[in-house]
């Protein structure tokens, strides 16, 4: 595979940054990858496991001379990290991110960036419930979507290079505007996570069902909820605080539908329930016929998947 960038800096060394590093290495896509994490413990762990070609003790040192800087921290921390690194960015460098919400990143990172630095926000639609520098693996992004969300003045050449990197990493790349991205993700990822958190909370509150019974008798649906509800609390707090409007919009629609189903159960309206479940079954079958494997444990699997 051909090299896309000479030097890339990864800021925040968790699941996404570590997976990016291993897949960049697998593909020989970058000359040198530097890394920075704010905690000394994370930097030590990264050095121990060979994560990044060089781990730096300051963000300034990590981004110095980097052609691409990728912010891999929770969405709520993006602005502060951008302010810290901005004075040290190389003129002509590209700055990107992997945050799950895009308008907030554009609003909080954009104002800190100096003239001559290209800003191309991005979001890989792949992840797990695990976090930290040891949780990454090279195959995470294979055949998954990565959405690029260029800002109005994003340089087309900078966008094309970032696209080449994500394609080299194994993803299918598409471009989308931030508002649309945040609404789509509220439907496909953010609200489902909130529902999983709620369902696990409800089971935990049910004193009649002991923990061991919940685990012993949990069928696949509830198990999937517990996996999703084990996701990183800081990351998901930030997702809901920053994608507030779209999540509330989808949640409003969700509760309306839930009340309609609740009413059908109370009144014994079997026809309504049957018609509803027939419609939702057709949606899933439609997804499968379109060639998308929705059995994957996460949302947003790419077209090329089996
Ligand atoms: N976990 C997932 O499934 C996915 C996550 N994302 C996005 O990727 C980004 C990173 O997520 P993960 O790698 O999963 O998280 P993680 O929790 O594994 O790693 C986050 C890293 O950021 C650092 N960090 C946290 N707060 C910070 C702050 N205030 N200043 C500087 N560094 C800070 C942490 O120490 C850690 O090194 C988030 O914005 C998330 O929304 C995107 C796709 C999937
Ligand atoms: O683990 C799962 O089920 C996921 O949904 C992974 C995920 C989490 C957050 C994202 O922004 C994108 C993908």
Automatic annotation (TrEMBL):
GO BP, one annotated term: tyrosine biosynthetic process
Q: Is the keyword Coiled coil in the record?
A: no
- Which reaction(s) are listed as its catalytic activity? prephenate + NAD(+) = 3-(4-hydroxyphenyl)pyruvate + CO2 + NADH
Q: Which InterPro entries match?
A: 6-PGluconate_DH-like_C_sf (IPR008927), NAD(P)-bd_dom_sf (IPR036291), PDH_C (IPR046825), PDH_N (IPR046826), Preph/Arog_dehydrog (IPR050812), Prephen_DH (IPR003099)
Q: Which residues form the Prephenate/arogenate dehydrogenase domain?
A: 6-295
Q: Could you list this entry's UniProt keywords, alphabetically sorted.
A: Amino-acid biosynthesis, Aromatic amino acid biosynthesis, NAD, Oxidoreductase, Tyrosine biosynthesis
Q: In which pathway does it act?
A: Amino-acid biosynthesis; L-tyrosine biosynthesis; (4-hydroxyphenyl)pyruvate from prephenate (NAD(+) route): step 1/1
What Gene Ontology molecular function terms does this protein carry? Answer: NAD+ binding; prephenate dehydrogenase (NAD+) activity; prephenate dehydrogenase (NADP+) activity
Q: Which family does it belong to?
A: Belongs to the prephenate/arogenate dehydrogenase family.
Name this polypeptide is given: prephenate dehydrogenase
Q: Which gene specifies this protein's sequence?
A: tyrC
């Amino acid at each position: 595979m051909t090299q896309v960038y000479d030097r890339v800096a990864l800021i925040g060394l968790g699941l996404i940054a570590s997976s990016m590093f291993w897949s960049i290495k697998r593909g020989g896509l970058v000359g040198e990858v530097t890394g920075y994490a704010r905690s000394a413990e994370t930097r030590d762990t990264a050095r121990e496991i060979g994560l990044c070609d060089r781990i730096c003790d300051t963000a300034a040192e990590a981004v110095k001379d980097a052609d691409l800087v990728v912010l891999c921290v929770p969405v709520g921390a993006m602005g502060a990290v951008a302010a810290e690194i901005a004075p040290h960015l190389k003129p002509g460098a590209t700055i990107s991110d992997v945050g799950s919400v895009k308008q907030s990143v554009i609003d909080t990172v954009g104002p800190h960036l100096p003239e001559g630095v290209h800003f191309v926000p991005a979001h890989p639609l792949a992840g797990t419930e695990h976090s930290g520098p040891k949780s990454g693996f090279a195959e995470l992004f294979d055949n998954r979507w990565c959405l690029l969300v260029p800002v109005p003045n994003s340089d087309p050449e900078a966008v094309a290079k970032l696209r080449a990197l994500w394609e080299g990493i194994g993803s299918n790349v598409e471009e989308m505007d931030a508002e649309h991205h945040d609404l789509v993700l509220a439907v496909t990822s953010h609200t489902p996570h909130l529902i999983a958190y709620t369902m696990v909370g409800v089971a935990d509150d049910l004193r009649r069902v002991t923990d061991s019974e919940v685990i012993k008798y949990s069928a696949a649906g509830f198990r999937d909820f517990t996996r999703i509800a084990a996701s990183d609390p800081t990351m998901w707090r930030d997702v809901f605080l920053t994608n507030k409007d779209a999540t509330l919009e989808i949640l409003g629609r969700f509760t309306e539908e839930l009340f309609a189903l609740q009413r059908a159960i109370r009144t014994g309206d079997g026809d309504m329930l049957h018609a509803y479940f027939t419609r939702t079954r057709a949606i899933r079958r439609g997804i499968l016929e379109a060639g998308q494997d929705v059995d994957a444990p996460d949302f947003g699997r790419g077209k090329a998947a089996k």
